[in-house]
Amino acid sequence: MKFIHTILLLIITLLLLLPGVSPAGPTPSPAKQIVPGNDALFKLFKVAAAKEPIYFSLIEKDLQRLRVLEYDRELKVVAEYFSATGENFGNKDISGDSKTPEGIYFITRIFKDDKVTIFGDKAFHLDYPNIFDLSEGRTGNGIYIHGTNTELKPNSTNGCVTLDKDDLDKLDRFLNQVVTPVVIVSSLESFKANTQLLTENDFKLAKSLLLLEGIKPEKVEYSYLYLISSGGQTVAVSEFVYRPFSRPIMRGASKTYLQYDPTQGWTTGKRIWQASSLQIYPEGTAKVAARPYIT
Predict the structure, then answer these.
(1) Rg (CA), the chain
(2) Is residue 273 within 8 Å of residue 295, measured between CB atoms?
(3) Which residues contact 108 (CB under 8 A, 6 or more apart)?
(4) CA dihedral for 265, 260, 181, 47, sign (positive or negative)
(5) How far is it, in rounded angstroms, from Cα 232 to Cα 216?
(6) How far is C-alpha 35 from the chain's CA centre?
(7) Cα 77 to Cα 34: distance, rounded to the nearest angstrom
(8) What does the buried/exposed string (b/e) look like for 70-103 if buried means 16 or more CB atoms within 10 Å of the residue's CB?
(9) What tens digit of pLDDT does each residue of 146-174 get?
(10) How confident is the model at residue 282 (pLDDT cuts 50, 70, 90)?
(11) HSE-CB for 145 with a 13 A CA cutoff
(12) Which residue, 293, 261, 275, 272, is CA-closest to 127?
């Protein structure tokens, strides 16, 4: 009997030493955990309003990993996928260098095919080079998040971000073409060293730069409003309803690319404003007329 007790004790000890295993069961999936290194991530992410969850994708090139982060009072990982990036290391500089760019990007177009090819059956085109890349003389284009019908290998692309086609299907539901940022970093450590710290005073000024002239800030109701910063790039993102009277007359989203100068503070490098006028007709149906602006 004593021998049996000794064997049971030895088995329990071995289970405790095995990574991710305990008598209570396996370690929870990363998709259920609060993001490790929250302090680092909150240096790039400052929220002013969030009536609904906020999502963004974080691609870490050193780990060949794409994580979907959700902010709903706290920042959590809700999905995680293996992803392949450019075969050459470093930030993209010129067309054809097989490097994946680093910065904050948004989806401009979504392409879908009725068959699966070497690029999968869908592709999300990113807006590289953005205003920050252009100011630094970076060139090239055709950077996508896409799938593949071949075996996915680390650091194997011409600069795109590639996922297994099944994982891309799962990622699709998190990607909003207008307002979901795709943040690409070489590593979280490099991001921490190169990111503009966001203060409350900076945020108040940046918030005022989101709106067009003539829009009364106190009449704007935000579904969400936040700043995101990475590697010297900073973007303010919002989705809103404009209610100057008793009922709303406009809904839309805006992105403002912000540039920081130590002597002048924040200035607007580029603003993309997509709004829809809400018109109420006698029969009670609302009709929407889209009005995109770029300033």
Answers:
(1) 23
(2) yes
(3) 125, 126, 127, 177
(4) negative
(5) 30
(6) 14
(7) 6
(8) bbeeebbbebbbebbbbbeeebbeeeebbbbbbb
(9) 998 888 999 999 999 999 988 998 998 88
(10) very low
(11) 30
(12) 272
Question: Which pTM does this prediction carry?
Answer: 0.79
Cα dihedral angle (29, 33, 39, 43), rounded to 10 degrees? Answer: 80
Helices (H), the chain: 2-17, 38-42, 131-135, 165-172, 188-194, 200-208
Q: What is the rounded (10 degree) CA torsion for 38, 41, 42, 44?
A: 180
The position carrying tokens 């329990």 is: 12
Residue 295 has which token pair?
């300033």
230 vs 143: which has the higher pLDDT = 143
- Both tokens of residue 40? 């680092």
- For 99, the token pair is 């490097």
pLDDT at 289 over 50: no
CA 37 to chain centroid, in Å, comes to: 17
Burial class (CB in 10 A: 0-12, 13-18, 19+), 28: exposed
Give Cα 196 to chain centroid, integer Å: 17
